[in-house]
């Protein structure tokens, strides 16, 4: 391992030396087969990362930094590591900023990773990200899982430390066809004495080995599967259908409706069951009989779970007093504790970075588990921007602010990981919990509708989260009500994902086709059950070989230019390819099958030799899927 610890002036000198001594270019650093070349440019240093002399990634290093200053107030350290380099920026001046950019080269390259976001475009060179917003777990823009990982189709990636005070500017007017990683101590990044920023630049032969290495070295991985009952049987949640207007009779009727139509699974009581949000006590008038209902549903073969959020609402007066007195809530730099969420404008957010506050939160959940005998929880929210900004977190390493809130929340609730789901995450790929996609809406498009279900699946898998819970089938009916066609297509899209979650019941749709609709959906649930062993095996592959459970199709053909750009197909493991119909009114779709022999899932007598494009006939009752021989 070589370490190049230099003041930037020395780098300048070195660049000069290499320029003078090298005919081709300004080769500066070498790390085995991977080399980093620098070249002076008007706005920083241009760089190239090469493996075996093939250019894998290019960009600008130190954009806007004054390298001519004779007494520089910063240091850059470049360290060679296996397959790449680690670059550290350090300055004792807290106002120092750095900007390092990658050229997306979207004409010839594709990129994977990046944040979960409302309009989940894929591959991610299509995303636009504003450098005005801190790159942290935010409720805004569905930005609930902001991993700092950009992987390209040539097998190079950048991974940025959780300690960097990061802002990301991509495809803006200032940075077209570029992603710029800006480190500056602003916004939620408080209490830092200087600037520290660290990135790894790594290069491999192709993106599969690159990603496996990223999982092992940087992203992290779980050791076991979540509860497989969440895979084999659907989840039925009250939310989209009833919203918060629920009681124990409704829960029971909802479950019996499911049962009477021949289905089973997990009943989820979502969302308003508490006397005040955060009390963890059932509203007596509405849920007086809940213990019996839960017991009865369990006897009928259901599992029953409860919704929980990390907030305490103002009408929980005693809890508010206790929490404020003991310092259990997050406050900002002027002592403001006001937390705004969808059920209050003046709530409090539990400070999970404080171990005592976490314990206070968990105790009440343990109590309700014991009192009522429910089986688990759905954990909502957890992003860092519900609290008054900037949040202060006195109990932790200040360089980890604010994403440490999200991380600590996940760690706290992992005690209840059996049957649990969370929806925000940061560097928590090693937990064996389902990660739910943020609420989807009842529309078809990439604007948080059905099409974004597939792209979000790909995105979460490619930042290391494989135990993905798609959101409610048919969406949440926020902007629009779903119709039967949307619900059927949505059901089909989730068949080969780890879990199926309903809220609207198929037979709720008053339609001439009503009966047929229910039967189509039943056949899809049966298909999911039939393939549950394959889903479980694919989730186990994640543990064994670091293969994402639902990878993009290029995973099996990493040199296939067409496959590298596909955003509306996905794999289950390495041998089932799924191409759901996601366009309103469509009865066929184009399907790309990469190299290999593919058996038609709908007709095993039919076989295709890839690579091939099919115009595949898919009326409402058909989900196109193919099995690799
Ligand atoms: C850079 O590093 C050198 C050697 O560790 C140190 O003497 C110097 O003070 C550092 N400069 C800055 C601006 O941090
Ligand atoms: C962080 O900043 C806040 C507000 O400026 C201050 O009250 C607190 O003491 C600081 N905490 C640490 C650990 O530096
Ligand atoms: C406290 O924060 C909330 C938002 O979280 C804001 O609406 C309110 O104006 C703030 N109050 C003060 C006194 O700054
Ligand atoms: C996940 O990794 C973190 C360290 O980043 C550790 O604190 C935590 O205990 C791990 N959790 C599990 C379930 O392995």
UniProtKB/TrEMBL annotation:
- Biological processes per GO annotation: carbohydrate metabolic process
MF GO annotations:
hydrolase activity, hydrolyzing O-glycosyl compounds
Signal peptide range in chain numbering = 1-25
Annotated Glycoside hydrolase family 31 TIM barrel domain residues? 269-533
Quote any Pfam family the record assigns: Glyco_hydro_31_3rd
Location of the Glycosyl hydrolase family 31 C-terminal domain: 548-629
Q: Which CDD domains match?
A: GH31_NET37
Top-level taxon of origin: Eukaryota
UniProt keywords (A-Z) are: Glycosidase, Hydrolase, Signal
Would the keyword GTP-binding be found if you checked this record's keyword annotation? no
Q: Does the keyword 4Fe-4S apply?
A: no
User: Record's family?
Assistant: Belongs to the glycosyl hydrolase 31 family.
State what protein this is by name.
Glycoside hydrolase family 31 N-terminal domain-containing protein
């Amino acid at each position: 391992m070589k370490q190049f610890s230099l003041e930037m002036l020395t780098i300048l000198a070195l660049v000069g030396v290499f320029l003078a001594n090298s005919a081709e270019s300004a080769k500066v650093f070498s790390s085995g087969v991977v080399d980093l070349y620098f070249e002076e440019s008007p706005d920083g240093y241009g760089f190239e990362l090469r493996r075996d002399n093939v250019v894998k990634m290019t960009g600008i290093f130190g954009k806007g930094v004054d390298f001519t200053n004779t007494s520089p107030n910063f240091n850059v350290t470049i360290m060679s590591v296996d397959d790449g380099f680690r670059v550290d920026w350090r300055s004792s001046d807290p106002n120092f900023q750095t900007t390092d950019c990658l050229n997306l080269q979207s004409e010839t390259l594709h990129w994977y990773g990046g944040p979960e976001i409302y309009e989940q475009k894929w591959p991610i060179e299509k995303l636009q990200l504003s450098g005005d917003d801190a790159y942290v777990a935010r409720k805004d823009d569905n930005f609930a899982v902001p991993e700092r990982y950009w992987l390209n189709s040539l097998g190079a990636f950048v991974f940025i430390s959780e300690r960097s005070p990061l802002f990301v500017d991509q495809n803006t007017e200032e940075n077209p066809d570029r992603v710029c990683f800006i480190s500056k101590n602003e916004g939620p990044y408080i209490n830092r004495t200087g600037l520290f920023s660290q990135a790894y630049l790594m290069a491999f032969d192709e993106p599969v080995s690159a990603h496996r290495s990223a999982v092992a070295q940087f992203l992290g991985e779980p050791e076991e599967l979540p509860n497989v009952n969440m895979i084999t049987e659907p989840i039925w949640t009250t939310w989209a259908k009833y919203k918060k207007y629920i009681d124990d009779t409704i829960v029971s009727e909802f479950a019996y409706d499911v049962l009477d139509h021949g289905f089973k699974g997990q009943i989820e009581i979502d969302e308003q069951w508490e006397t005040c949000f955060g009390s963890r006590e059932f509203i007596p008038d509405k849920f007086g009989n809940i213990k019996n209902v839960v017991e009865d549903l369990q006897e009928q073969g259901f599992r029953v779970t409860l919704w929980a959020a990390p907030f305490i609402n103002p009408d929980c007066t005693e809890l508010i007093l206790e929490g404020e007195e003991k310092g259990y809530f997050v406050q900002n730099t002027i002592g403001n504790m006001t937390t705004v969420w969808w059920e209050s404008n003046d709530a409090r957010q539990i400070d999970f970075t404080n171990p005592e506050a976490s314990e206070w939160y968990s105790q009440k959940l343990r109590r309700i588990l014991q009192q009522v005998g429910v089986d688990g929880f759905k954990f909502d929210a957890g992003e860092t921007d519900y609290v008054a900004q900037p949040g202060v977190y006195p109990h932790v390493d200040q360089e980890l602010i604010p994403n440490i809130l999200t991380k600590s929340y996940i760690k706290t609730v992992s005690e209840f990981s059996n049957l649990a789901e969370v929806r925000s995450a940061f560097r928590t790929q090693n937990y064996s919990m389902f990660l739910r996609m943020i609420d989807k809406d009842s529309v078809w498009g990439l604007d948080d509708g059905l099409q974004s279900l597939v792209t979000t699946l790909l995105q979460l898998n490619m930042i290391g989260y494989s135990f993905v819970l798609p959101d409610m089938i048919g969406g949440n009916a926020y902007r629009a009500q779903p119709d039967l066609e949307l619900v059927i297509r949505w059901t089909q899209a989730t068949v080969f994902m780890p879990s199926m979650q309903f809220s609207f019941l198929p037979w709720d749709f008053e339609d001439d086709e009503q009966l047929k609709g229910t039967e189509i959906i039943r056949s899809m649930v049966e298909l999911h059950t039939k393939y549950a062993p394959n889903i479980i095996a694919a989730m186990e592959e994640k543990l064994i070989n670091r293969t994402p459970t639902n990878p993009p199709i290029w995973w099996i053909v990493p040199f296939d230019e067409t496959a590298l750009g596909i955003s509306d197909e996905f794999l289950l493991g390495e041998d089932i390819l799924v191409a759901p119909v996601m366009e309103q009114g469509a009865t066929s779709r184009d399907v790309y099958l990469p190299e290999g022999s593919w058996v038609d899932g709908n007709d095993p007598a039919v076989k295709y030799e890839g690579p091939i494009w099919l115009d595949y006939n898919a009326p409402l009752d058909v989900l196109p899927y193919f099995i690799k021989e």
